[in-house]
Specification:
mainly alpha, Cyt_b561_bac/Ni-Hgenase, transmembrane helix, elongated, transmembrane, Di-haem_cyt_TM, cell membrane
């Protein structure tokens, strides 16, 4: 299979989200030491880096054309969910679905990951900004929502990285699209 290569800007966005997002997630437990602790500050700054990358990614998706555009890539339509159901049926029969970029199950998993990173960055920033309101209903709701997101990150990583591994084992080295230099 011929895996398309993303340009350097796209690769930077992907790796920035991946590295800062995973680092923020891994340091999440350190944030429980209090707002003035080094662990909280490390988690906060990593989370703010994720916020910059995810806002840039959403801006790129909304304002550009091409591989990173959100045009036609959403899970808010029936066609995408129908394709995803077909993909699951193929996977159950041990067949790897072949779709256009961001379509079907892959598109749903990837877009869900972007929404999850967006939620985590925004809710984490809100927790920091509302730190003087601890105990308020709004603060508690945002904090609980942030913890739900924290629990969903491993599921997303298993699905996303697992799909890359399955594609690689089938001979489709999709991971190369995020490390090779674009020929364009």
């Amino acid at each position: 299979m011929n895996t398309e290569t993303f340009n350097r800007r796209s690769q930077l966005l992907h790796w920035g989200l991946a590295l800062f997002g995973i680092a923020a997630w891994l340091t999440g437990e350190n944030a429980d030491d209090g707002f003035n602790s080094n662990g909280f500050l490390l988690h906060l700054y990593l989370g703010l880096a994720v916020l910059v990358f995810i806002l840039t990614r959403f801006g790129t998706g909304l304002l550009t054309k091409g591989k990173l555009s959100f045009k036609g890539w959403t899970y808010f339509n029936r066609a995408q969910w129908r394709l995803a159901a077909q993909d699951i049926g193929q996977l159950i029969r041990f067949k790897l679905p072949q779709r256009e970029i961001h379509q079907g199950l892959a598109g749903i998993v990837q877009f869900s990951g972007l929404l999850l990173f967006l939620w985590m960055a925004i809710s984490g920033t809100a927790i920091f900004l509302l730190q003087n309101s601890t105990g308020s209903a709004l603060f508690e709701a945002i904090e609980e929502g942030h913890e739900v997101g924290e629990a969903l990150i491993p599921l997303f990583l298993i699905l996303h990285v697992g799909a890359v591994i399955v594609h690689t084992l089938s001979g489709d080295h999709v991971w190369k699209s995020m490390v090779r230099k674009d020929s364009n």
